[in-house]
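Hypothesis: this fold can be encoded by more than one sequence.
Test: take the C-alpha cells below, design a sequence, compare later.
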C-alpha cells in the first residue's frame, strides 16, 4: 500500500453512519455517536478508525480498529499519531494488556486508575470488570 495515498480526516457529524458501518464490519461492538470526535485513515474506503469521547472534560481514546487485511502495517499507529496532533489536552485510553507496548511506542504511559477523574474512573471500573484492561495516558 502506498502511504501517500492514505487520507487522514476527522469525520463531520453527518458521516458518522459510515464509520458505524465500518465498526459493524470489523469491530463488532461499540458505535460512534455524534458527540464524539471520529478520525479515519482511508483510501477509497475506511481502513482504520478511532474515536475521542469527552467524559467530564477529559478525552478518552476508544474504538481503535483496522480492517483485518490491513492490520500489522502501522496504520493504527499512523492514525493515532495524526489524531494526537489535533489535540491539546491529555488523552486517556483503556487498552488490553497485550497492547501496552503498542501504546507506549505512541507516547502513552501507564496511569493509576485511582487517579482518574471521577466519571472516567467509573467507566474504567465498568469496562475492567468484563476484561482486564490497562489505564494509560498521553500527556502534553
Amino acid at each position: 500500500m502506498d502511504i501517500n495515498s492514505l487520507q487522514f480526516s476527522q469525520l463531520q457529524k453527518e458521516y458518522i453512519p459510515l464509520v458505524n458501518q465500518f465498526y459493524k464490519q470489523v469491530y463488532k461492538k461499540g458505535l460512534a455517536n455524534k458527540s464524539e470526535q471520529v478520525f479515519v485513515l482511508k483510501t477509497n474506503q475506511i481502513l482504520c478508525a478511532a474515536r475521542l469521547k469527552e467524559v467530564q472534560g477529559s478525552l478518552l481514546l476508544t474504538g481503535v480498529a483496522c480492517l483485518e487485511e490491513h492490520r500489522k502495517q502501522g496504520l493504527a499507529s499512523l492514525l493515532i499519531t495524526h489524531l494526537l496532533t489535533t489535540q491539546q489536552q491529555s488523552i486517556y485510553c483503556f487498552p488490553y494488556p497485550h497492547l501496552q507496548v503498542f501504546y507506549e511506542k505512541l507516547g502513552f504511559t501507564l496511569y493509576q486508575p485511582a487517579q482518574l477523574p471521577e466519571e472516567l474512573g467509573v467507566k474504567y471500573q465498568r469496562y475492567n470488570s468484563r476484561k482486564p484492561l490497562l489505564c494509560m495516558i498521553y500527556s502534553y
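The radius of gyration is 15 Å. The first strand starts at residue 7 and ends at 10.
Hypothesis status: open.
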